[in-house]
């Protein structure tokens, strides 16, 4: 079965913007788009037998409406729908297993709605093994693959640079036909040359057509990335998968970025 670009949808505006962004991404990747909606089975459990299944019917109506919206805006994209019942975290994580990436709509962290709500968003991010893209609907519409402006911003930790995170960012830049802006917390010129010449050497050789620029700002990495996201097409950041028993842990840089990002944020899990 071909991998899909999968997006979790609900009744919110954030969800619809995420579906639009995911459709554009599916088009550039040559993948079908899968719309997923999760409803709680608890509602059916307390309704009369004749009304049981109303949750599924509501989910199917919602998915049909979103699929129609996507088809009108992106007629070239093949769309499939998948209604599920149960825990949103569990079902979204399950759906991501067959996906090339998972897309979710989001507001500012702490005031989010729908699937991406507080501990739910964190639990999804730390559990999935596929990249997750969080798409904001506040302010101007989110940039997508067909947007003529904006670069990919890559936040790279120099202490433990990850090839899979860099590969994701460069692949996006190639498909979008844009440049890549590298953001770290290093200001020293000698260390900067080390990053560009050594850490990213393999990727700049593999993707010679992608212009790479360095960007550094004062303060914490999360704040620097948030500033760099203004005018960006996509921000890419790695997330080390950790097995924490009691809580999800995003790390201060990613937490700050999700709070203030002005562009879609791709979170690439790694060990």
How is this structure best described in words?
The protein is of the alpha/beta class. Helix content is 39%, strand content 21%. It is built from ten helices and ten strands. Helix 10 links the parallel strand 9 and strand 10. Helix 4 packs parallel to helix 5 and helix 9 packs parallel to helix 10. It is globular and about 65 Å long. About 4% of the residues have low confidence.
Q: What is this structure's SSE topology?
A:
Elements: E1 4-8, H1 13-29, E2 33-39, H2 42-45, H3 54-73, E3 79-85, H4 88-96, E4 99-106, H5 119-127, E5 132-136, E6 152-155, H6 163-176, E7 180-183, H7 189-199, H8 201-206, E8 212-215, H9 221-228, E9 234-240, H10 252-260, E10 265-270
Parallel strand pairs: 1-2, 1-4, 2-3, 4-5, 6-7, 6-9, 7-8, 9-10
Antiparallel strand pairs: 5-10
